[in-house]
Amino acid sequence: MEKIRKLKLDWYNFITLMEKSLLVVIAFLTAYAVLVEIISVVSIRAVKLTDLLLLFIYAEVLGMVAAFYKYRKIPITVPIFIAITALCRLIILQGKGINTIDLLYESSAILLLAVSALVIRWNLVNLIRPGSAADVKERD
């Protein structure tokens, strides 16, 4: 029985190490992508809204990695905000030539994601720990 417990602990430690290693790789690759984007903006000498939104997405990814190391979990709302920003960037990149039905689908997806973030936030504030907004801010 002790061997089984030790084997489970070894697997848990291995998976935890892989998770942390992958997050470090994600952080470094995101920092590299930020550098590449900044070099691209400087070389073109023009900043577009899509460039800023992409940098914002990179900042959110780095924030998600930092939140994991600080709180030992990834807040569910951060990936939702990243998805909303990515969809907004997609709409802007497509420009005026976008098909109307595609624009409707993409904007509906943004609305659905925003409502889901609102519901999650409301549940954290009102159902889990009523009156403890500071705790929610830490977890979210």
Task: Summarize the structure in words.
The chain is mainly alpha-helical. The protein has one domain. It is built from five helices and no strands. Helix 2 runs antiparallel to helix 3 and helix 3 runs antiparallel to helix 4. The two termini are about 40 Å apart.
**Radius of gyration over C-alpha positions, nearest whole angstrom:** 20 Å
The rounded distance between the terminal residues' Cα atoms is: 39 Å
* Topology, number of strands: 0
Helical residue percent band: over 70%
The number of helical segments is 5
Strand content: under 5%
- Averaged pLDDT, please? 87
SS-derived structural category: mainly alpha
Characterize the overall form.
extended
Please mark out the parts with pLDDT under 50 across 5 or more consecutive residues, or reply none: none
How is the main sheet built?
Answer: none
Work out the count of structural domains. 1
Q: Strand-and-helix sequence, N→C?
A: HHHHH
